[in-house]
Amino acid sequence: MRRPEDASFRNLYQKSLAYDRRWTYRRRRAAVLAGVVAVALVLGAGVWAAATYFGFENGIRRSDALTGGKGLDQDVNILLMGLDSRLDENGKPLSQEEYDALHSGSSDDGGYNSNVLMVLHVPKDGSRATIISVPRDDYVDLAGSPDGIQQGKVKQAYGYAMDQAMREFAASPNGKSQDEIYQAARDAGRKAEISTVENFLNIRIDHFAEVTMAAFLSVAKAVAPITVCLQEATQDSYSGADFKAGVQQINAQQAVAFVRQRRDTSGSGVALSDLDRSRRQQAFISSLATQLKQKGTFTDLGRVTGILDALKDKIAVDQGLNLIDFGLKAKQLTENKTKFVTLPIVQFGTSDTGESVNIVDKQAIQAQVADLLNPKPAPASSAAAQPARPAPAAPAAGSSDGAGTQGSGAQGSGAGQDSSTGQTPAGQGSGAQGQAGQPASGQAPPAAASPSPSSTFNAGDWSDALVGGGVPCVK
Fold first, then answer.
1. 234-236 and 151-153 as β-strands: parallel, antiparallel, unpaired?
2. How far from chain centre, in Å, is Cα 392?
3. Which residues contact 103 (CB under 8 A, 6 or more apart)?
């Protein structure tokens, strides 16, 4: 991997790289929020159908980055991208209230890395959908070698390609306005990110949805309190996380901390990494989708219109994605308990430019993805459901509704340390750690406001597959 030889501030993306060193933690947490909300809303059972009727379609950004995608009457792959940009989809600053709530700097900070990448596979027959989390630091070939860079972190394709397009349009605008140049450059970034993921996983992406960081906060405020479950008590001074063990309800600000925590600073010995944060995102999506379904959130006109008004300038989709069909398909996704898998890494390493990266086995990953998207019928001897692992002890915790089974070789089996925390990969076993402590007396969530206790189950660690449809207990 190499960088252009110009001065470090010669262009937009090099400037964002400089900010990365100053704002690394803030940027990463921002994109985490953006990506999580994209999937949660997909699984919200009807939000997309309601969106069209209430004017959402009129304000949403439709992109030309991807055209001709298959209809949802076929097997489709939808790429969900969360950016670390501090701007909305029109390139405009967020409100000061949003910046303050997110603790994310200002409109001058951030960049255009796709820090959250998830592939949602929706089978045409209505069977169980699969969400594949692609670790953002996986070291891969970048499609088209944007900015002359052949290899880099999978998340970087968007930013490098956008930067290259911005410079090319600036040199030859062909009558385009600044806003038109900006949107055309964004589309160039989207195309490069889509192609990079396609080449890496050996799949075709049929549609995409892209969201900004403020979208997560908007949804969290609208649906809070949100029920989650943790295997162990944990604290983190960086993210502001301060959670007990077991089932609990959290507000919007706590939800932000929940999905971005990747370390524990309490000295309790809880080992967390960037890969565990991916599992947190998956668990939050499952919990939120369960809550939206049980509480009938999107049958409430007032709450629907409030969420959609806040979201429509913070999301972009391709031209061919039919939101009505997507809304109808979302109901199937929630009923059939979506499966979540994080792709494995071989080990943590360093690129030739000194960046911390995930070393991956591309051939093995492509084989695993092929198995996930084209599962073979289970042998008759293994048809019986596996018993679920119990969740950590907590008020009102009951029998399991799902189980975290081993995930198609998604093992972080290599040596090395996490590229962001210096920890060894956590995927060395089931991760079913729920004995660290009991929730404090009197802190049980109100039964009427939280999902059924029977929906709580132990989700293991990031290397295990997670089957949704409830409230997973995670690290």
1. unpaired
2. 25
3. 26, 240
Q: How many CB atoms lie within 10 A of CB 47?
A: 24
Domain positions in the chain are 12-223+247-375
Rounded CA-CA distance 411/425 in Å is: 9
How many other CB atoms are there within 10 angstroms of residue 294's CB atom?
15
To 5 degrees, how large is the angle CA 158–CA 161–CA 165?
Answer: 130
Please give the CATH superfamily to which domain 12-223+247-375 belongs.
LCP protein (3.40.630.190)
Mean of pLDDT over the chain:
74
Q: Which tokens in the block code for residue 249?
A: 């309800």
Are 249 and 397 spatial neighbours (Cβ–Cβ below 8 Å)?
Answer: no
281 three-class SS: helix
Q: Of 65, 58, 55, 49, give the one whose Cα is nearest residue 320.
A: 65
Specify the amino acid at residue 467.
V
Closest CA to 12 of 137, 164, 152: 164
Distant-in-sequence, close-in-space partners of 319: CB < 8 Å, separation ≥ 6: 62, 63, 64, 66, 67
Single-letter amino acid, residue 394: A
CA within 13 Å, CB half, 340 = 33
Q: Round to the nearest angstrom and report the end-to-end CA distance of the chain.
A: 34
User: What Cα–Cα distance (Å) separates residue 416 from each residue in 9, 278, 347, 426?
Assistant: 33, 19, 6, 11
Dist CA 118 CA 99 (whole Å): 25
Place of tokens 């501090």: 86
Query: What is the predicted pLDDT for the residue at 73?
Result: 82
Q: Where is 303: in which H helix or E strand?
A: helix 301-311
- Burial class from Cβ neighbours inside 10 Å (0-12, 13-18, 19+) for residue 3 reads middle
Bridge partners, 117 (sequence order): 81
pLDDT lower than 70: segments of the chain: 1-59, 85-91, 101-111, 296-308, 310, 324, 327-334, 336, 378-454
For residue 286, give the nearest of 252, 259, 317 by alpha carbon.
Answer: 259
Residue type, 457: F
The tokens for 430 are 């089931």
Which pTM was predicted?
Answer: 0.74
Residue 42 is predicted with a pLDDT of: 55
